[in-house]
Design goal:
By secondary structure, the chain is of the alpha/beta class. It contains twelve helices and 14 strands. The mean pLDDT is about 95.
Length: about 350
């Protein structure tokens, strides 16, 4: 099969009951696969009973998002992989324009559709919205979502655009590009892993796109809801690790110094203003964990930098999104365009 839609599931029986049928209604040719990350709920029994036509890959333990997909995709033969969250509703031919675009643009490694919120189809969804970017200090944001400001979809971002990263909630990627980069970094476990993969591809000269002509509806939140200290820990640790791997030599020292300051300012704000001891400790532990394992990524950094084709990857904006958002009040992608 040319295309494989792979849903990584962990204790997501309720989501599978709600959204899997919409995926199976896709009118094009694609194999639908569920890879189960050692669920302890009734997911596997449900799939076997009600969806025997869906290929089931059962993993022996919970490998997390990154290695879970690596383990599953090693067992899948296809030209294109579609990594799709279990909490996404799709419509009709959502995938057809994406495949057509990829067929016509061999220089593009991966793309994403427009992500709208399942609870409000007129609003973008947090985890990817209409294409992902990074500021100069490694903070991710999207067309349609900057920090907690999520815009209404009024067609303002309906033009296809090259981006830095595509959301892992609905990611179409060439199998050859996926494995040329070694897949998702399993050490991340979860969070920032798709940004890391897309950034590595961009460094090597490959392109990433958002194609708003295709749209899906995402519940969001995942297994670790916002405000969970583990999520905070993974986000800080993994984001710093990604920066260490991917920043060019000319930027690495300065950016990491500024991030040291910004991260501890954020931690103190969590502690003093929000009285959130859990997230405060998560930031501190995230930075310590990064420092402890940074040396393990030295070979990765060397290899990534040797593959570098440009120091100015599309989608990396030479601004501080913190300054633009909080000091200048620029809370939408459209208002940031003058800062490019």
């Amino acid at each position: 099969m040319k295309t494989a839609i792979v849903i990584l599931n962990w204790n997501g029986e309720r989501m599978l009951r709600t959204y899997l049928d919409s995926v199976k209604k896709y009118k094009g040719e694609a194999e639908v696969i569920v890879a189960d990350n050692a669920s302890t709920d009734g997911s596997v029994d449900y799939l076997r009973q009600y969806h025997p036509d869906v290929r089931l890959i059962i993993l022996d333990k919970n490998y997390g998002f990154a290695e879970g997909y690596n383990q599953a995709l090693r067992q899948v033969e296809a030209e294109y992989y579609v990594l799709l969250n279990s909490d996404i509703r799709v419509d009709g031919d959502w995938l057809t324009p994406m495949i057509a675009f990829m067929d016509q643009h061999p220089d593009v490694a991966a793309c994403q559709p427009k992500l709208l919120a399942e609870h409000d189809h007129e609003s973008f969804e947090y985890a990817g919205a209409c294409g992902g970017m990074l500021d100069r200090y490694g903070y991710p944001f999207c067309r349609g979502r900057i920090f907690d400001t999520v815009e209404k979809d009024e067609g303002q971002y309906d033009t296809p655009i090259e981006i830095l990263w595509a959301t892992g909630a609905a990611l179409l990627i060439r199998a050859a590009d996926y494995w040329q980069q070694g897949g998702l970094d399993a050490r991340f476990f979860a969070h920032n892993e798709e940004i890391d993969l897309c950034w590595r591809l961009a460094i090597a000269g490959r392109k990433i796109y958002c194609l708003p002509g295709s749209k899906v509806y995402h519940v969001g939140g995942g297994t670790l809801p916002k405000g969970n200290p583990m999520k905070t820990f993974l986000n800080f640790r993994n984001n710093l690790t990604m920066l260490y791997k991917c920043l060019p030599d000319s930027e690495l020292h300065k950016v990491m110094l500024v991030r040291w300051i910004l991260d501890y300012v954020a931690a103190l704000q969590m502690l003093i203003l929000q009285r959130n001891v859990g997230d405060f400790m998560a930031v501190v532990r995230g930075r310590r964990a990064f420092n402890k394992w940074k040396a393990d990524f030295a070979a990765d950094r060397k290899r990534i930098q040797e593959s570098r084709r440009t120091d100015n990857e599309t989608g990396r904006m030479d601004i501080s999104i913190l300054w633009q958002y909080y000091a200048r009040g620029k809370k939408t992608w459209a208002s940031l365009t003058e800062c490019r």
